[in-house]
Design a protein that fits this description.
Elements (H helix, E strand, L loop, with lengths): L2 H11 L2 E6 L2 H4 L12 H4 L2 H4 L2 H6 L1 H17 L4 H12 L2 E6 L5 H5 L4 E3 L2 E8 L5 E3 L18 E5 L8 H12 L3 E5 L10 H8 L3 E6 L11 E4 L2 H9 L1
Parallel strand pairs: 1-2, 1-7, 2-3, 7-8, 8-9
Antiparallel strand pairs: 4-5, 4-6
Helix pairs in contact: 1-11, 7-11, 9-10
The protein binds 2'-O-acetyl adenosine-5-diphosphoribose (OAD).
The site of 2'-O-acetyl adenosine-5-diphosphoribose (OAD) has 26 residues, from helix 2 and strand 8.
Length: 239
Amino acid sequence: MSGIDRAREILAAADRVSVLTGAGISAESGIPTFRGAGGLWRNFRPEELATPEAFARDPELVWEWYVWRRGRIGEAQPNAGHRAIAELERRAPVFTLITQNVDGLHDRAGSRNIRKVHGDIWISRCSRCAYQRRDTATVFTGVPVCPECSAPLRPGVVWFGESLPRAVWDDAERAVHGSQVLLIAGTSAQVYPAAGLIDLARSAGSSTIEVNLDGTAYSGAVTVSLRGLCGELLPQIVA
Ligand code: OAD
């Protein structure tokens, strides 16, 4: 049996499905990944753009970068990989999508039960109080200020050195622990704690299916490892 057939069979037989996605699923929509060829971290230094210290030092630079990314994302459309995951949700009685992506393309493809463990680039939130709002600005006009407490607003994403949003992470762990299968798509699985969900699935005895252009540290450990494009393989294994 081919890997694709095996993955299809595992997914078709499961009532409780979780999916973990990363930047690779949005690559075919034209949004750059972080690592590997053309990855953002090849051209930008995370410590200058994606840490609380960077924001404290130079909020203009950090905002400029996030607004530039919003512009790229705003021009992009969900692809066949996003749509296949939305289709999987419609079929599985119990389904949770856990994404490390902040781009919102899963929502636009029709996914509903999503846990965004690294936040949402379309949210701006106060760096001091609990204020937050949806923010679709894609042109940088200066650092936005909180209407309630006048502190600078910040992008609603998780930066290096920060904790993941507690309730979102708890839901993600609970979903993976309670699923019969974890489908892992387009993530290098190098960033923790998100990548630890793969270990959690394995230790809970769940099947694990990986879809990635390249091998990862988990390729030898998962039940089925498929090499190729999310936009090609995901529709095949959901069909
Ligand atoms: P990475 O850029 O680390 O990994 C993207 C993965 O997708 C790689 O393993 C590629 O081989 C694979 N890939 C690329 N294009 C693909 C395609 N069309 N089909 C299938 N696979 C493809 O992205 P993430 O794993 O999401 O965090 O990175 C995790 C976190 O690191 C991000 O959420 C971000 C980043 O720093 C924060 O900013 C907190």
